[in-house]
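Ticket #4471: structure output looks truncated?

Reporter: J.K.
Steps to reproduce: submitted the chain below (153 residues) through the standard prediction queue, then opened the result file.
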Amino acid sequence: MRVLLASLVLLAAAGISPIEAGFRSPESLVRNVYAYYGDRSSDLSNGLPRDAATVRQFFDPGLREAWRASTRPPYDFLVQSPTWKLGAISISILRKQFDKTYVAVAFDNQGRAVTLNFILVNGPEGWVISDIESPHDSLRMFLAQYRNQGANP
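Returned output as attached by the reporter:
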């Protein structure tokens, strides 16, 4: 036990995290997603970034490349609009099934109610996003459709 504790202290002191991706809880993951949706006064409030480190932290391997490849989608799927001014965000666990947890998220974006269902998986790296469903679409389908439209103008 002392060896494990000493190893974690040394890793932390060196700036190396034993968990390089994912989050410790589904709620923490969702809160951290929406922490990027501020007033756009800094890079940290311009929506969820598409850089490799952020993508690795938030998405499962099957979704990482699709998120990185979509550099100019018609709107931001996570707020269902190209612009945002978000109200209070409600997060609730809908269901837990094996390694997946379904999380309902609701908020107001510029006077319009938005509801999304996050499908989160708990893997060796922590909790990450497997998919997100809106009432009409899913993040995976949206990114695939956008990629296909971008390839065939």
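Triage note (M.O.): checked the attachment and the full token line is present. The helical segments are 2-13, 26-34, 52-58, 61-69, 139-151.
Status: closed, working as intended.
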